[in-house]
Amino acid sequence: MSAKRVFEKFDKNKDGKLSLDEFREVALAFSPYFTQEDIVKFFEEIDVDGNGELNADEFTSCIEKMLKEVFVFCDVDGDGKIPASESYVTMTSLGKKFTEETSAEKVRAADVDGDGYLNFDEFMALVIGDI
Q1: For binding Ca(2+) 3, which residues are annotated in this chain's numbering?
Q2: Residue 105's CB: how many other CB atoms inside 10 A?
Q3: What is the pLDDT of residue 131?
Q4: Of 56, 55, 82, 52, which Cα lies nearest the Cα of 67?
Q5: How confident is the model at residue 19 (pLDDT cuts 50, 70, 90)?
Q6: How far apart are the C-alpha atoms of 12 and 111, rounded to whole Å?
Q7: Could you tell me the residue ranges of all domains in the chain?
Q8: Which among 90, 16, 88 is positioned nearest to 54, based on CA atoms?
Q9: Could you tell me if 63 and 128 are in contact, meaning their C-beta atoms sit under 8 angstroms apart?
Q10: Is the pLDDT of residue 16 over 70?
Q11: How far is 12 from 113, CA to CA, in rounded Å?
Q12: Residues annotated in the binding site, as ranges?
């Protein structure tokens, strides 16, 4: 699932914009650890035009930025890859309720090139695909 598909899924009234309430659902789907304050602050930061709603472009850039920050944090050695063996820790730190076995299965499916690592695109597909 792409960031645009996530946008469409959570745009409940199909008006082409996400309200703060709709965005809250997205944020909590990514991680239940976000506080209300975190969500409001993040929403305000990515609402580039300041109209109190997120359009698809604002949302997509937000998701990519957020996931890039998580990816960089998890990419301890900075080589642009996260070992598949560490995905369980990464996913549970995002609040996902995976067993190690489930995590391994999801990583195998996301590891398109089969190298045993998740690059950013594979990581993004894994995280977004679980929403």
Answers
A1: 111, 113, 115, 117, 122
A2: 12
A3: 61
A4: 82
A5: very high
A6: 31
A7: 3-129
A8: 16
A9: yes
A10: yes
A11: 35
A12: 11, 13, 15, 17, 22, 47, 49, 51, 53, 58, 111, 113, 115, 117, 122
The single-letter code of the amino acid at 19 is: S
Looking at the domain 3-129, which fold is it? Recoverin; domain 1 (1.10.238)
Tokens describing residue 49: 């035009």
| Residues facing residue 118 across a β-bridge | 82
Furthest-apart CA atoms within the chain: distance in Å: 44
Q: Which residues of 38-64 are buried (b: 16+ CB within 10 A; e: fewer)?
A: ebeebbeebbeeeeebbeeebbbebbe
The Cα–Cα gap between 16 and 42 comes to 19
Residue 129 has pLDDT above 70, yes or no: yes
Q: What pTM, to 2 d.p., does this model score?
A: 0.70
Binding residues for Ca(2+): 11, 13, 15, 17, 22, 47, 49, 51, 53, 58, 111, 113, 115, 117, 122
Closest by CA to 26, choosing from 62, 51, 50, is 62
Crossing angle of helices 120-129 and 100-110, in 10° steps, is 120
